[in-house]
Specification:
Oligomer: heterodimer
Shape of chain B: globular
Largest sheet of chain B: 7 strands, mixed
Largest sheet of chain A: 6 strands, mixed
Number of helices of chain B: 0
Order of helices and strands of chain B: EEEEEEEEEEE
Structural class of chain A: mainly beta
Distance between the termini of chain A: 38 Å
Radius of gyration of chain A: 13 Å
Strand content of chain A: over 45%
Order of helices and strands of chain A: EEEEEEEEEEE
Strand content of chain B: over 45%
Helix content of chain B: under 10%
Chain lengths: 111, 113
């Protein structure tokens, strides 16, 4: 079983739609949960970060962590064509130095 | 230059060639990383350096040889590669090994013919 599972997509939605991106994981020691966004021909950049469980909101983006289900989500409201990118979930425990990444979900938002 | 830079951006090499990838970070970070990114696969951590000392070699074949002369520069020396080594090679840095945030360069797209 992979430590982090993420559907690579692609996911195609119309402009203005609510997008839900998800990852599951198996390591209960993970405490840091991140979402990175990677545009074409660019490296990933950190979009949001959550420590332990709960929700975090930043503008149109909401990150959720459910540690009991080992499931994390990223919601994008009022999606825009500029949101078209690959979204990678990433996780890390407090004691280690390795960050474990998902495969990334390719998102297309159509105008 | 700001952030993390990588050169070259694209590289095509034959299986018998020797080439090097270069990464430079202008953030004052102490940890640097090499990752391999292949289509529809998770980022694969290859090497980790902390204060220019190697702390991780993630079972990477010896045809990949890293070098970290100081905390700002990281190289990946390549020789006798295989076609399956074709991928995007990403360099990243972080303030320290415990940091949750990594800053990535744009990557080098490598094609092995």
């Amino acid at each position: 079983q992979k430590e982090v599972e993420q559907d690579p997509g692609p996911l195609s939605v119309p402009e203005g739609a609510i997008v839900s991106l998800n990852c599951t994981y198996s390591n209960s020691a993970f405490q840091y949960f991140m979402w990175y966004r990677q545009y074409s021909r660019k490296g990933p950049e950190l979009l949001m970060y959550t420590y332990s469980s709960g929700n975090k909101e930043d503008g149109r983006f909401t990150a959720q962590v459910d540690k009991s289900s080992k499931y994390i989500s990223l919601f994008i409201r009022d999606s825009q064509p500029s949101d078209s990118a690959t979204y990678l979930c990433a996780m890390k425990d407090t004691g280690g130095f390795k960050t474990i990444f998902g495969a990334g979900t390719r998102l297309f938002v159509k105008a | 230059e700001t952030g993390v830079t990588q050169t070259p951006r694209h590289l095509v090499m034959g299986m018998t060639n020797k080439k090097s990838l270069k990464c430079e970070q202008h953030l004052g970070h102490n940890a640097m990383y090499w990752y391999k990114q292949s289509a529809k696969k998770p980022l694969e951590l290859m090497f980790v350096y902390n204060f220019k000392e190697q702390t991780e070699n993630n079972s990477v074949p010896s045809r990949f040889s890293p070098e970290c002369p100081n905390s700002s520069h990281l190289f990946l020396h390549l020789h006798t590669l295989q076609p399956e080594d074709s991928a995007l090679y990403l360099c990243a840095s972080s303030l320290g090994l415990a940091s949750y945030e990594q800053y990535f360069g744009p990557g080098t797209r490598l094609t092995v013919t």
